[in-house]
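Collaborator request log, item 7. Partner lab (contact: R.S.) asked for a structural prediction of Beta-glucosidase to inform their binding assays.
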Amino acid sequence: MKKSTRLIIKKGLFIGITLLISVNSWAQLLPYKNPNLSSEERAKDLISRLSLSEKATLMCDISDAIPRMGIKKFNWWSEALHGLANNGNVTVFPEPIGMAASFDDDLLYRIFNAVSDETRAKYNEARKNGQENARFLSLSVWTPNVNIFRDPRWGRGQETYGEDPYLTSRMGVSVVKGLQGPSDAKYRKLLACAKHFAVHSGPEWSRHSLNINDVNPRELWETYLPAFKSLVQKADVRQVMCAYQRLDDEPCCGSTQLLQRILRDEWGYKYMVVSDCGAISDFYTSHKVSSDAVHAASKGVLAGTDVECQWSDHLYKQLPEAVAKGLILEEEINKHLLNVLIGRFDLGEMDEDNLVSWSKIPMSIVNNDEHRKLALDMALESMTLLQNKNKILPLNKSKKIAVVGPNANDKPMLWGNYNGTPVRTITILDGITSKLSADKVLYEKGCDLVEDKVTESYFSQCSIDGKKGFKVSYWNNKDFTGDVVATQQIVNPIKLTTAGQHEFATGVRLEGFSGKYETEFIPSKSEEIVFKCGATGYFELFVNGESLAKYNNWRTLPSRIPFKVESGKKYKIEIRYAQLNNWEANIEFNLGKEVDVDYTDLIKKLQGTDVVVFVGGLSTQLEGEEMPVSYPGFKGGDRTDIELPVVQRNCLKALKQAGKKVIFVNCSGSAIALVPETESCDAILQAWYGGESGGQAVADVLFGDYNPSGKLPITFYKSMNQLSDFENYSMKGRTYRYMSDPLFPFGFGLSYTNFKIGKATVNKAEIKSNETIKLTVPVTNAGKRSGTEIVQVYIHKVNDIEGPIKTLRGFQRVELAAGKSGQATIDLSPSAFEFFDWAQRKMMVTPGEYEVLYGNSSDPKALQTLKIKIK
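Returned to partner:
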């Protein structure tokens, strides 16, 4: 025998013995610790070894460690809506409503693959540094929001992928697949979550008590449920979050119809259901369907909610008492805990890191060049050009322009909501400035987002102990007690944040600290002043010992507090602030006199500039989730008026009257009734909330370095008169599917080139109910520059009087050079012709004639038609 052959045999024996030892080692482990067993087998074994109280704590979103079993603390609540949220130095992509305008689910998949990489990297780094599994830095992310944006007043509509069930389904599936990783991997990269199940889209102010009972079965199945079904059956989503409100008298988190009959029995869902935070306690505090916490907890579990999210004092920890009272059996708890533990085993967080490939993702991947490019690419694709009179766009780079408006130089506006803090942000002013020499850009804020007054600051008139400004004392606890760890004197309006890992002062921790801000103000005359303040955390304002404002916010929302002062009287001002929970700390404060906005000075400053880029719209200071601060036209984060705020309308009108050419860049997470703006503005670019590179994307479009291709994922209405009551969930008259007189229709968006869509062909005009047809649509770029057209396909069932006018069932992006032709090839599967059948009370493909409408928007004038017959 050759020496080489003997070496090979010895090496093979060594490997075989090693493997045998390894297998025997695993076999000697308790089954729940054996990674060679299935997650279900391991979960069942672990459940058999737990006490009832241990089982209960594992069903809370903050799950305490169980050291005797080697179970680590686990947090189910993290957010990754458009990047890892509530964390610093991450990549922040555009808000989802903006990403929906791209109609690009392939790019969306790549983005959320990047998001999951960054989340794992941050998680890995935290573990390496010995940090516990904290809220907002875990492997469970409560994303995506696939609710239907049925009404433009909803403040959280920005988190969705628009008003159409098919577009939302396509985009949602890509999000989940990107977050969870390859389906054939041993471990999930993250666990995604489809929320909020179901029939949930405002109002924010009544969501804890609202009872929705005006949705008929057809609207339920054709509008509100398709995206959830797609995420369950096409993306294998591992979590579903039930919503706050009631549906047909039952709270969604206590609805057996939703969580058992539909989700599990009809769709075959086999993973975990989580509650929205506080939804279980709503059973007895708001909905009044349970008498107390114990009954609410048992009701939630029995209905199918496996994990309870709660701000504190979890109700599910009282499940042992529910068992003792006979409200629920321990066997029932075991069944729901099984779903929870399978999720944890599927993540690999119970196993050694060397077995989990995702545990090796390094921090160097966070906000790397590839991810930055993805953020810019999506911001570019989201840009939606709504108006371009006389082809004023693109702008000439050789001419001087003015940049005006409240959103022009605002970084947080670009970040949207449920966001992280990026490494760097390119504001819209930054982007425009990068295109021109310094002498060709004039910037003036011009006006506020909403307020029609300007605050003349009196901060410089404050002093204490003979020093200007505020004296500040800090403690490294939340109680303002013990030794002061730092002091400082603040001489400018207060604006502090821990975003980006910045300390409030040297020696002050990033979390779990408190501060007291003190000064004295002696007014020179009697008048009414205002205190302008906002904070993330605990905030309380005292004047001469009296509390004027007190709140504990999970985000910074500016508030205005009027206060009358007397000349010569001393006013002692004290602010107490404490960082709480796991949120980043922020505090803002100013005081002064409000004066009316006068555009005369603005117009004078703009002399010599003919073109004005006005950057306005809304921001997440105004629209968002259950916000405690309201402004004229806004209530609790929702809108009560869908027009542009009056102060901005007046500013645009003044600019137009001064003879300026006005390009309006509208930043918003919802549709605005821009009827006056179509008159006062020469061009309108809908820029959404564009993320860390949103400003670059806006500038690239304005100056023609990128040809816009975005299409509206929502209808832009003409006025509030086109909307029914906000709390009415009937689809009648809502969205492009049930209304026909919009200002700008769903699917609409202009380009700098001219596309022509030819006559489509199908491989079959008559099919059986289980057949797929292939639609081929010719597209020609008849213009002078390259661009991308988005071909859209809608279906209408002929003689279906009560059904939708049309409903999107296919789309494809077609990129063409100037003068070139191509085609979109779109498969229409049987589900494209599926509608609710009243006779059988379910979604079906039924025989009959169908119209296939194709074009570049939902506008009837933009669509051509062919007929398909189903036998």
